Amino acid sequence: MKKIILRSIPFYLVLSLVLFFSYGCEKDQDFQETIESQSKLKSTIVEGDYILYNRNSNKAVDLNTSTGDVIQYSYWGGTNQQWRITSAGGGYYRVSPLSNLDIAFDIAGQSTSNGANLQTYSYWGGYNQQFQFNDLGNGYYSIINRGSGKALEIYQFSTENGGNVDQWSYWGGTNQQWRLESLTGGGTANGQLSWTLTTSGVPSDVQSRITAAMNAAVARYNSWGNWSPRTLTVEYNTGVATADGSINGNIRFGSNSAYQTECTAMHEIAHTYGVGTSSNWSSPLIQNGLFVGANTVSKIQQFDGSSATITTGGGHFWPYGLNYNSEWSVTNGNRHAQIVYAMCQDGLYPGY
Questions:
Q1: Same domain, yes or no, for 203 and 338?
Q2: Please, which residues have CB within 8 angstroms of residue 236's CB and are 6 or more apart in sequence?
Q3: Lowest CB count within 10 Å: 10, 64, 111, 267, which one?
């Protein structure tokens, strides 16, 4: 943020400024209360591995391995864009890149000034290396340095690759808000989805693969959506080429072991919630091949930017439809579950 320099100010403008600040105490007080309430917000982050996205730019926090500086960059999956968050005690956390866990976020020179640079440095436990994650209640966090009490932000609201991360007094800008996407686990929802295998005499190796796939898929769905109680029925049917799912809650796995996976299980669970199977998989939720429900649009734009869309076709959707095994990653699985839940909130499946 740039400092504003005032020069040759006419007397009438000076008088106006005096009057404004004399009678603007209520606004100043509100602003101060905002800052104070910000400092009192509870730190609720769960230790683990994360991608950190800036709300304003939707770009990921990235370690410039040449300089050690922390910047933003379009996410491409490098370990220099993936961060391990571990407790440093007292409600504060250490943040280290997976590419080098011996270093950590560090406010350069232990500065307490606005505009001080965020870099990485060998971790030694200084307050300039400890951060509090304050849940803003809107899916985003502010990240406050213990030593300075200032918030991490993207300098000058940059949306470009290479935009710098520094610290500044917290004032609520979207460039000071961060979304954390887990790489190691799920979300914080408490869904009640379950499943049961209804076929007997399943070969032990097949049953093991199906059980592992369904357990993982259901756990991921439950951690990213507050699903109402429902028990899916699962069959092993050698007459099924790959796998399929129906809106009545039934999933069938065929004999091809390449499809007895979590990726396939999640894809088929989506069909049990109406993806390609519900009468609502049509207008008004789908228009010109795009899924246009407000919750779903908001979610995909949160993930991929303000111009992102969900395309439909052949009873499927993309991105994040997990239509092929090659689409699988933990991130894509987490996003898939959130998008299906958003679709249900938009009316694809009743009760949400």
A1: yes
A2: 197, 199, 202, 206, 207, 210, 252, 253, 255
A3: 10
CA distance 270 to 251: 10
> What is the value of pTM for the model shown?
0.69
pLDDT over 90 at 164, yes or no: yes
> Does one domain contain both 221 and 313?
yes
Is 111 within 8 Å of 148 (Cβ atoms)?
A: yes
Q: Name residue 34's amino acid.
A: T
Q: How far apart are CA 175 and CA 188, in angstroms?
A: 24
Give the domain range for residue 170.
48-182
Task: Provide the b/e sequence for 33-52 (b: ≥16 CB within 10 Å).
Answer: eeeeebeebebebeeebbbb
Domain boundary among 132, 157, 182: 182
Query: What residue ranges in the chain does DSSP mark as E strands?
Result: 48-54, 60-63, 70-73, 83-89, 92-97, 103-107, 118-122, 131-135, 141-145, 151-154, 165-168, 178-182, 193-197, 230-236, 243-245, 250-253, 286-287, 290-291, 311-313, 316-318
Angle of helix 25-40 relative to helix 11-23, nearest 10 degrees, comes to 50
What is the layout of strands, in order, in the sheet containing 230-236? Answer: 193-197, 230-236, 250-253, 243-245
Distance of CA 110 to the CA centre of its chain: 29
Angle between helices 262-272 and 204-224 (to 10 degrees): 60
Amino acid code (one letter) for 166: D
Count of domains observed in the chain: 2
- The answer to the question of residue 243 being in a domain is yes
SS3 129: helix
3-class secondary-structure state, position 105: strand
Residue 181: strand pairing partners: 51
| Residue-wise pLDDT tens digits, 232-279 | 999 999 999 999 999 999 999 999 999 999 999 999 999 999 999 999
Burial of 163 (C-beta count, 10 Å sphere; 0-12/13-18/19+): buried
